[in-house]
TrEMBL record:
Species the sequence originates in: Triticum urartu
Lineage of producing organism: Eukaryota, Viridiplantae, Streptophyta, Embryophyta, Tracheophyta
PANTHER family linked: GLYCOSYLTRANSFERASE
Superkingdom as given in the UniProt entry: Eukaryota
Gene Ontology terms, MF aspect: UDP-glycosyltransferase activity
Protein name: Uncharacterized protein
Any one of the GO BP annotations: carbohydrate derivative metabolic process
Length: 87
């Protein structure tokens, strides 16, 4: 992973609980064995942790869609930004 990816992964998996960590950052330079990948995929598909992560990801997606929709918070912020820079 590069630059902001470790921070994003930590935020999404740790704070938002919308993902499952494949491996800790300290081991990012190591090749991840297929067995480990298989284990994480099984956890994502068959465990309570995976169900919770998928539910959190779905809720996050809905929040993002609402924010960028016409009248949403991100939409309004962009409108305000454009208004300020075009004065």
């Amino acid at each position: 992973m590069h630059s902001d990816q470790p921070w994003n992964a930590g935020y999404v998996c740790g704070h938002l609980k919308a993902g499952i960590v494949m491996r800790p950052w300290e081991k990012s330079r190591e090749t991840l064995p297929a067995k480990d990948i298989q284990e994480v995929i099984k956890r994502a598909m068959d465990s309570d942790e995976g169900i919770a992560a998928r539910s959190a990801a779905k809720a996050l997606a809905e929040d993002v869609r609402a924010a960028v929709a016409n009248g949403g918070s991100s939409w309004a912020d962009m409108e305000e930004f454009v208004a300020r820079i075009t004065k």
